[in-house]
């Protein structure tokens, strides 16, 4: 299934008609450069074009009051003076004779996107719209927004398709207070937002944008705010919040639909955000959400005011929605102190509502009240600082790397008598191995056809590294022996860093590097205290790998942050026989691991486990993993042990930090 793209140039046909410094950044060119970048890069041709439509009154009334709608209806007939007058009652927004029409198209586009995804016409999609939506409220326009596009889409999805749980992820740099107000008492809609806050010194300067606004009444726990109290946040900060706050809750919530308030003012160069995350971060944020809700993801444009980073960020998002390999993120050095404080506050505020956050630490000692005074002083200093020093136009960043799709997506190396699963390309060619290697294999008690398998295996690895193949599945007689050989000989010159993810445990992995060429994370039922090192990390699940709750927690809270920091060139996923890992979890793991090494994942399985080849192939081919159903409360010891393990390792691995 494909990716929907909604765009209508009519939504470029309104602009600011008078002087207003607060609104001058919201220009038609935002939409034009975004769409043109998609056309120029060839991405728009790969999408399924869905026409925009006007939202009807009843659809708009899902969120807004009749009084407000009737008032906005009058704006097309207003004189310039009337429009100015009408605008005065709202904050940081402007009206135009054509903005009502465009606002209906923006909301209608979001609904068209929901229809396309919910009817299975497409898997996911993006709507390029203006005016944006997430600040507009029941009875008021605000922050360039007229109708709350995403809030309307959430209510529409519930009403028309009986969607039980909607996750709204708001990665725009402003707090979508309109969305928060709409759903704060509603447990069927989980709203997550990060936003520049600076202890309430940043627009919209709301007390309720802080981390302690967790929702109310039956919606308590279903509103997550992560305030950024400094500017300059980077890729590490964003990924840490996804791994340690959003994703654990999102997986526990198990949404049927994911809506994204896709604002790109959180990218480097944006005058509003003043952050430093690069456009390719949106490839990863999108990727990390794509295995939720069976892949049903609708992204709706919100903000983004630097035309260069906006266009690049939109392209990065669309390319991931299309299933292209995500780019490697280099030198992630862990979240900054302020980000750690923010994520620790958010985690501790929600630990009583989400079992996946149960073991979160207490909030940081720093008393934020004094921070108000301090940051006000900082604010003064900043304004004294010459404007150009702070201006973001001076910011430069590298073009996002090209994300080439290998000619072959998934290859397989199977014994001759095993039927190849649909979609996989059997790798037959296998070059002769060096005699030395053959003799080594022989000593590893590998028999004749095992040597053939190994030679094909090495050919596969070479093709992965050469980006001729994206990923592969290998069935071997003895998976532990195969892993040893691959690890020992792979790290020769082919790859610089191999992440080995070992699911289940047959025997001690006696091969562990200390030079960092291999990082082994082993998830199994056995506790192995000995020879744990920076590069060999055993994770013990009391009930074993069949405990999906414990497993996904270890993946999100430990494996993902480690993987991002380690930044491997190849991922070796080893499924030990008898691991007991649940199929949907196995597919989720393969899906999530695609975020590393440009998707170069090599799955090693034992021949007697060929029954799960089908689901492995499906995940390797990029099909969304099935949702993890009815997750039990994680075993307390496991959650606790994971927290302790993170604390022990965070000296070596900065991305594991969750406490300041
Ligand atoms: C969709 C959105 O969240 O990007 C809208 C942001 C509105 C910002 C209003 N204040 C602007 C002050 C200008 N320096
Ligand atoms: Zn914004």
From TrEMBL:
<dbReference type="InterPro" id="IPR023696">
    <property type="entry name" value="Ureohydrolase_dom_sf"/>
</dbReference>
<dbReference type="InterPro" id="IPR023801">
    <property type="entry name" value="His_deacetylse_dom"/>
</dbReference>
<dbReference type="InterPro" id="IPR037138">
    <property type="entry name" value="His_deacetylse_dom_sf"/>
</dbReference>
<dbReference type="Pfam" id="PF00850">
    <property type="entry name" value="Hist_deacetyl"/>
</dbReference>
<feature type="domain" description="Histone deacetylase">
    <location>
        <begin position="26"/>
        <end position="320"/>
    </location>
</feature>
<protein>
    <recommendedName>
        <fullName>Histone deacetylase domain-containing protein</fullName>
    </recommendedName>
</protein>
<dbReference type="InterPro" id="IPR000286">
    <property type="entry name" value="HDACs"/>
</dbReference>
